[in-house]
From TrEMBL:
InterPro entries according to UniProt: DUF1059
Domain of life: Bacteria
Name of protein: DUF1059 domain-containing protein
Organism this protein belongs to: Boseongicola aestuarii
Pfam family, one: DUF1059
C-alpha cells in the first residue's frame, strides 16, 4: 500500500478562501509544491519563512 501526502491551502490560517491543494508521493514533493503555490498564487517568498512558520505549515501536511 502506497502512501501519499497532501496540503490544502485553505487549512492555513488566513487562507480559508484559497482553493489550492497539492498531493504528492513524498513530503519533500509537497513542500516544493507548497512553496511554488505560495509564490505564484500569493506572491510570498518561502525563503523568508521562519522556523515557526515552517513548523506550522508542516502540521498541515496530511497522509492520504
Amino acid at each position: 500500500m502506497s502512501t501519499a501526502f497532501s496540503y490544502a491551502c485553505k487549512d492555513c490560517e488566513g487562507m480559508e478562501t484559497c482553493p489550492g491543494k497539492v498531493v504528492a508521493t513524498t513530503k519533500d514533493e509537497v513542500w516544493k509544491l507548497m512553496e511554488l503555490h505560495a509564490v505564484v498564487a500569493h506572491g510570498e517568498k518561502p525563503n523568508s519563512w521562519d522556523a515557526e512558520t515552517r513548523n506550522y505549515l508542516g502540521t498541515l501536511i496530511k497522509s492520504v
